[in-house]
Amino acid sequence: MRFGTSRFFAALPYLGLALALLLSTWAFVRSDRYRQETDEILNQTYEIQWRATQVRERLVRVHGYIRLADEAGKLDPDINRQMALVSVNIAQLVALPYLQHFFPQKDIELLENVRRTVEQNVAPVVEAGSNYADALDHMTNLEQDMYEISSATVDHSTTLQETAQIDIAASRNWFMFAIALGLVAIFYLITHQRHAYVSRRDRHMRSFASLFAHMTRSRVTALRLFLEGTGSEQPPREEMLKAARSAANELESINDGLLKIAFSERDSHVLPLAKLLLDLKDRDGIVQLSVDSEAGTQTVPATQFQLVLSELVQNALTAVENTDGPSVVVKASVVHRPVFRRNVLLLEVADNGVGMTPEVLRKAKTPFFSTRAGNHVGLGLTGCSQMVATLNGRLFIDSKPGAGTVVKVRIPIGA
To answer: Is-above-0.90 flag for pTM?
Structure first.
């Protein structure tokens, strides 16, 4: 559960960044949609306003022709064309599918009444060429009606323009907010990665320290016993001298490895896994290797893998010391995973030794826990687990009393 939670928090900055990018894209697309809708509304308003103005201008001309005819007794022939244009413009204006979004129903009915009045009351007077005074009364009312309609259209257009500007400004602000949120996510991601790098480096150093402490403790104990034996009157036995020289050589080798790590700018020493595993074969024929070709060609950090493999194999050899037909098998393979998930390098160190009880298995990776007293500090599996964690991997132990132990190391590889 803790591992899943840590993975969730590790992926949280990436989710935030993806969300910020999606929000920015949405705001940009939405802003463009606002502009398109605003342009469409303004175009519709301008068309309504233009047609209403055309009707009003035609009515003014018809009114002027009738007034001149009432005073001079002669009617201008252009009046028929102007009256026809009045009817046509009103019909086209009423037929607009979006008119109801801008005009209330009473204004639409008023337009229809203007057209009926022109066709039923004004047109017969023009055709008869008499009683112009009756037509003038109707024209005055019609001009007043069209003035109210045109004024409402102009006021509505102004309101729409203001609303459109507000919508554009609002969408622009959302876009800027999305950009700001994206920048916050990016900076948080950078900060998180920096702390994660420091944390991994710290775990790396602690895992190195615990493994080296575990590896040097038994050698220091052997040298201490040798020094205690040199104080007696009898000279040290040959086996004690041999053990002391071996412990000194091993300590020197461990110290050289530690110095190389301490004074290198970065751990860039990588080797194919097969080359590292070949060094394990010199174990009196007990250690057997089973490495597939793909896993053998994988390049791995040499120092970390040497430490982990050496410790795991040494634990396995210790477990089979008193076993008939001892066997330690080291396997390496590549586990292919679905798309968008990294493949895994799987290492297994299996022995047919005494195995562990459930209680010991639960404490196997606990610091300072050991079943071997005296010259062990109980940091071997703990250090291995921490070392594997610095490589973004995990270490699993499967063991049963009398059936042996299998230690599995899973490390992500590839892009």
So the answer is: no
